[in-house]
Each structure stands twice: as C-alpha cells, then as structure tokens.
Amino acid sequence: MKQFAVIGLGRFGTSVARTLAGMGYDVLAIDQREERVQDIMEHVTHAVQVDAVDEHALKSLGIRNFDVVIVAIGQDVQASILTTVLLKEMGVRRVVAKANTELHGKVLARVGADKVVFPERDMGVRVARALVSQNILDQIELSPDYSIVELIAPPEFVGKTLQESAIRTRFGVTVLAIRRDRDIIISPGPAQIVKEGDVLVVVGRNDRLEKLEARIQ
C-alpha cells in the first residue's frame, strides 16, 4: 500500500491528509505549528511538528521512503521551494507541490516537482463552469488539454442509446460511466439507454467538452 507524507497543514494540506487517511492509506502529516499537528493527530497515521526546511529532521522521519510527498505549504513561497528541492535531493520518488501563482508553479517545476497543483485556481475554474452551466456538476482537470466532466444527461439524449445519441462521433468525447440514482454503470456499452436524471461521466479534450457543454446549455 502506498505511503503518503503531507507537509503543510493549512486547509489544502489538511484536506488532502484526511482524505488519504480516510481511504485507508498510511499518512504522515507534518507542520511546524504545534496546534495544527494536534488538530490532525487523530485523523492520520502519524503527525509530527517539524520545520520543513530542516534537512536532518526530514531525514530522521525517513521521508525518502514515502511513495508520494505533498508539499502543501501555503504563503511561504521560499519554504515551499526549498522543501521541494530538499525532497528531490533526498531521493523522494514523487513530489507533488502546491503553487499559489503561475510563477510559483514554474519555479517548483524547474526545481524538480513531479507535479504542480493550483488548488485555488482549479477550484475557481470549476466553480465558474458550474455557475455558467446548470448541466455541469463537476470537472476534474487531467492535464492542460484533457478533463473529466460530470454532466446531467441533456434532454435530447434521454430515451436513446449512447450509439443513437452519437456523443462520441458528434463531440469526440467518451462516456466513462453513468450515475443513475445510487447505481454506477461503468464503461457503458453503445446499447446502453440514457434515462432522465442520469449523470454522464465524460472524458475528452477540453475544446471538445466545451463544445458539448455549449450544445446542451
């Protein structure tokens, strides 16, 4: 089972740590503030008060043995960058770092972060999309070009099979699953009939998804 370490227990770091722990993974939570460590201690495998830029302290925790280390340090950009550098120098296999700005993200990528995330920006995008389209329930950005979108089945699809709706040929996207009440239909076949109230989980290029969204608004 994968082991995760989360450095920085602000809102984002705490949410990541608690979610991973809730999924059954071993999670080490790290922050230099004692109160934050105390608050999360009961919800993760281990929680320690450590300065993230203290190389010896990180080594003593065996940080290089973790499968993924998430650098979730908030406003201290310098500490975020230095911690990322230290982790890669120590041989951590995968470092995921939180960025506050595009420039911050570029620096993190340059110094070795395997993945850079922009939680505030990405959440803003998802909220904005939800506001302008009543059909879009959620969106997960897989890359700058591809996303997964959950959308309420448009009326023109209801009563038709996926093949008849021609969602793949018309829009160039793929239906990964259909959520129907409490059931989930995984990898639905072309003969699957879409019913009123179904939620389609669709993957594709962002420009194709935008074309689909525009069509059903």
Describe the model.
The structure is a single chain. The protein has 217 residues and is of the alpha/beta class. The protein has 2 domains: 3-117, Rossmann fold (3-Layer(aba) Sandwich), CATH 3.40.50; 122-216, 2-Layer Sandwich (Alpha-Beta Plaits), CATH 3.30.70.1450. Helices cover 37% and strands 26% of the residues. It contains 9 helices and 11 strands. It has helices at 11-22, 34-40, 55-60, 77-89, 102-110, 119-132, 162-165, 167-171, 206-216, and strands spanning 3-7, 26-31, 46-49, 68-71, 95-98, 115-117, 136-141, 146-152, 174-180, 183-186, 199-205. The strands form 2 sheets. Strands 3-2-1-4-5-6 form a 6-stranded parallel sheet, with helices on both faces. The mean pLDDT is 88.
The CATH class label of the largest domain is: Alpha Beta
The CATH architecture of the largest domain can be given as: 3-Layer(aba) Sandwich
CATH homologous superfamily placement of the largest domain: NAD(P)-binding Rossmann-like Domain
* Shape estimate: elongated
Beta-strand percentage range: 25-35%
Structural Rg: 21 Å
| Integer average pLDDT | 88
Report on the biggest sheet: 6 strands, parallel
Category from helices, strands and their pairing? alpha/beta
Q: Please give the count of helices.
A: 9
The portion of residues assigned to helices is 25-40%
What is the element string, with H for helices and E for strands? EHEHEHEHEHEHEEHHEEEH
Which regions contain 5 or more consecutive residues with pLDDT less than 50?
none
Total domains: 2
Assembly type: single chain
